[in-house]
Specification:
about 300 residues; alpha/beta; five-stranded parallel β-sheet; four-stranded parallel β-sheet; 11 helices; binds phosphoric acid mono(formamide)ester; aspartate carbamoyltransferase activity; Asp_carbamoyltransf_Asp/Orn-bd; transferase
């Protein structure tokens, strides 16, 4: 594959190969002094039209660990603010002959469009409510390292599923690797038409968490709600916020995940987020290893210069 635009279309074999490669990168990603040369002489542009803490910084660290020259495009101070279109921005950057462009955009499909307009490899760092493939890969790597595998696990994805690209990529990846995926949310935050696609849905947290090995919490994405249904924070936390009591409904050895950014006291309590069953910090660490693996996997498909 020349690009990584989504989990959709990747086979169990593709995913396992990427996760194996990422596992090998975990030790390397911790050794700052041992930079690799896989991307020496290559230029990586991080083009983020939406805010990011984890994804952008870990792509920058990953690129640098592999020897690439990494440039963070500041969209807020770019000519995008003067009305330049996505296609013109892509053509402009393409003329500078980058080897990799990492893109986050608020519109679903924007990354696919950009990939058609440039000569280099493109990685989707999140497009609207569509996909966030490297997040799903780092979640899977974290699960694998803690549970020994993915097949047969029961994973409860809870919260604002309808607006979540993280949920979508995770649903695709986890189902492909043989996990049982449950979606737990108020009916207004479940994707319409999801019934019959092989995912169990629950509107009741107690039933949804019963027997879960992994409890994956999601943030309420108010920026995507367009005034339709915005639950009150207090009410939401009472019914759907993960606190110690609700976590006790899952398996005793259940582990808690959250892609970040967290809204403490809304979808998760601090006690759980910082507790012994939380993998949240490890997820962030795995982000660097996974992004190194993705960049390495694309390295053999980069343009000949
Ligand atoms: N999980 C995630 O994508 O975080 P950022 O928005 O901080 O990159």
């Amino acid at each position: 594959h020349r690009h990584l635009l989504g989990i959709e279309g990747l086979s169990a074999l593709d995913l396992t190969a990427l996760l194996d490669l990422a596992d090998e990168q975990v030790e390397v990603s911790r050794q700052v002094e041992k930079k690799k040369s896989t991307l020496r002489g290559r230029t990586q542009i991080n083009l983020f039209f939406e805010p990011s803490t984890r994804t952008q910084s870990s792509f920058e660290i990953a690129g640098k660990r592999l020897g690439a020259d990494v440039m963070n495009m500041s969209v807020a101070s770019s000519s995008v603010k003067k009305g330049e279109t996505l296609v013109d921005t892509a053509a402009t950057l393409n003329a500078m002959r980058p080897d990799l462009i990492i893109v986050r955009h608020h519109a679903a499909g924007a990354v696919h469009l950009l990939a058609q307009k440039v000569d280099c490899s493109v990685v989707n760092a999140g497009d609207g409510a569509h996909e966030h493939p490297t997040q799903a890969l780092l979640d899977a790597l974290t699960i694998r390292r803690n549970k020994g595998g993915i097949e047969g696990l029961t994973v409860a994805i809870c919260g604002d599923i309808v607006h979540s690209r993280v949920a979508r990529s995770n649903m695709l990846l986890l189902a492909t690797l043989g996990a049982r995926v449950r979606l737990v949310a108020p009916s207004t935050l479940l994707p319409p038409g999801i019934e019959g696609l092989g995912f169990e849905t629950f509107t009741d947290m107690r039933r949804g968490l019963d027997g879960a090995d992994i409890v994956m919490m999601l943030r309420l994405q108010r920026e995507r709600m367009n005034g339709s249904f915005v639950p009150s924070t207090k009410e939401y936390f009472r019914f759907y916020g993960l606190d110690q009591e609700k976590l006790s409904w899952a398996k005793p050895d259940a582990l808690v995940m959250h892609p970040g950014p967290m809204n403490r006291g809304v979808e998760i309590s601090s006690e759980v987020a910082d507790g012994a069953q939380s993998l949240i910090r490890e997820q962030v660490e795995m982000g660097v290893a996974v992004r190194m693996a993705v960049l390495e996997a694309l390295a053999s498909h980069l343009p000949n210069r």
